[in-house]
């Protein structure tokens, strides 16, 4: 019985494609939802989105954030987004490509943002994540760190934290770690 359905399906596909055109790839539900999310983006002027693999690969893209206030004012930070085919039922995988001295971003680029982990819900969208990332730069959180050293300095000595952020963004060492220029 199952083979009969597969044969019928194959015949229907051949009939649909008999006009000589290549078969059209069907989009997954995740791709359809992502397409809608991207078309409805309402980004702040300090954020932009790009598709390094071309517009045909919507499931992988980059977001650039240029904070205009706070410790990270003037910096340029690039994040990669990898979207699962079952999006929005699974949160996107987000990594920071720019090495940054930040309490909520570790040196490998992992991001500590609650809506990317335990607080993810399918009603959230790409716009929400981008605003969340932007908020990490305007209000870094020392209470939920991925970089405990940076979090400790932010908590105990905000002036030294600001100095370390400036040094890292200008391209230099903070402790034993070298940061490339991102201003």
Automatic annotation (TrEMBL):
Keyword terms: ATP-binding, Nucleotide-binding, Transferase, Ubl conjugation pathway
Keyword Nucleotide-binding: yes
Matching SUPFAM superfamilies: UBC-like
Keyword ATP-binding: yes
Stored CDD domains: UBCc_UBE2F_UBE2M
Protein family per UniProt: Belongs to the ubiquitin-conjugating enzyme family.
Protein name (Swiss-Prot/TrEMBL): UBC core domain-containing protein
Classification of source organism: Eukaryota, Viridiplantae, Streptophyta, Embryophyta, Tracheophyta
């Amino acid at each position: 019985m199952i083979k009969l359905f597969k044969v019928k399906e194959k015949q229907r596909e051949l009939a649909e494609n008999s006009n000589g055109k290549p078969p059209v790839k069907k989009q997954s539900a995740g791709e359809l939802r992502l397409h809608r999310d991207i078309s409805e983006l309402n980004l702040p002027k300090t954020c932009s989105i790009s598709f390094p693999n071309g517009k045909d690969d919507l499931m992988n893209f980059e977001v650039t954030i240029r904070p205009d206030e706070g410790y990270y004012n003037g910096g340029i930070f690039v994040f990669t987004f990898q979207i699962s085919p079952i999006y929005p039922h699974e949160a996107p995988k987000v990594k920071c490509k720019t090495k940054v001295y930040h309490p909520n971003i570790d040196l490998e680029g992992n991001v500590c943002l609650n809506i990317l982990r335990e607080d993810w819900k399918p009603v959230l969208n790409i716009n929400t994540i981008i605003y969340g990332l932007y908020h990490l730069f305007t209000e870094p959180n020392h209470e939920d760190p991925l970089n405990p050293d940076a979090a400790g300095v932010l908590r105990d000595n905000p002036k030294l934290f600001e100095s370390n952020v400036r040094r890292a963004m200008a391209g230099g060492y903070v402790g034993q770690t070298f940061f490339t220029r991102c201003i």
